[in-house]
Amino acid sequence: MKTIKFINEAKKHHAKNNKSGKAGCYRGRSGYAHILPIDSDTKEAKWDAIKKYGLLEAVKQYAKDDTSFYNHLHHLAHHLTSSQIMCYNFFRPLKEHPQNLAAVFLSLGATYIQDPKCKFEYMPNKEEQTNYDFYIDNKNAHIYCEIKYTEACFGKECRARTESWKDRQENLYPSLVRSTLMLWNDEVKKDIPNFVDICMKNYYQLFRNALSTKGDNDYVFFICPQESEGLQKSYTDFVTKYMSDYGKKHVQFVTWEDLIKHARKEFTDKKDFFDAFEDKYLNF
After folding, report:
1. Which of 82, 115, 117, 242 has a CA between 20 and 30 Å from the CA of residue 52?
2. Which domain holds residue 266?
3. What is the SS3 string spanning 257-279?
4. Degrees to nearest 5, angle at CA 146 with 140 and 150
5. What is the rounded CA–CA span in Å between residue 189 and residue 166?
6. b (16+ CB within 10 A) / e for 153-184
């Protein structure tokens, strides 16, 4: 399915299934049925609406105590198409069984992680500041998950023009590329500054996320809908042009559909949960 068609169909699906029965507002305009109505433009009001109408029944029990997730709530999280809330709806119940969750990613090609811990909204490098939607790790292995749903593509360009971002382009990012040379093909290694410049203008999000893989036990997974051709194309263009075979193994594109298929095999007692998730986000 073409990306724009998928996005429009997803919005229609969520508008039809908006349990609040009311349309929300966006940029001062009302009538958006795929957006939850809120009393005020505050994090508290958005989280209240999400807890009532945006979470799966199997997930609601966890929301009260997840203050860390609440603190990182995105500005548009009350949109029923929010990839952040999609991530929370999927991973929150599974997070209670981290070893099983690690086994799911093992089946997708990652390394096995013993005694893992799981986090939402994790920033591994405070200087670089890339934030991941979901993260699994122990001291020796790391799995970083970037979640997409109705995004048309990965972030292409760094729009910041401050001195600190100029310093990142000229110093931080070339240094990070040199420390992850195993990820990149020979063309990248010939002219690292030029590669960084290209990525800052065309592949910014894919590039930044890939830089988190610093060793044999580090993996980045871009989790996206099967029907979103734009996301698939962006990823394929990037890895084909610039990544080594080693890099392609450690920076992977996985569809939501494939992830769910593998998760069903590991969590055999959660059939109803996976059915409800697919009905909410993918079956339309």
Report:
1. 117
2. 3-281
3. HHHHHHHHHHCCCCHHHHHHHHH
4. 170
5. 21
6. bbeeebeeeeeeeeebbeebbbebbeebeebb
Please identify which residue in the block is written with the tokens 């405070």. Answer: 126
Count of domains observed in the chain: 1
Residue of higher predicted confidence among 163 and 50: 50
Of 283, 281, 284, the residue nearest 88 (C-alpha): 281
Quick check: 25 and 79 in contact, CB under 8 A? no
Three-state SS for 59-77 is CHHHHCCCHHHHHCCCCCC
Q: Per the confidence metrics, is the pTM higher than 0.90?
A: yes
Tell me the C-alpha distance between 231 and 265, whole Å.
26
Per-residue model confidence as pLDDT tens digits over 113-168: 999 999 999 999 988 889 999 999 998 999 999 999 999 999 998 876 677 778 88
Classify residue 88 by burial, with Cβ atoms within 10 Å: 0-12, 13-18, 19+: buried
Instruction: Give me the helices (H) in the chain, please.
Output: 3-16, 43-49, 60-63, 67-71, 83-94, 98-107, 163-167, 173-178, 186-190, 192-202, 204-210, 229-242, 245-250, 256-266, 271-281
Pick from 151, 124, 153: nearest CA to 215: 124
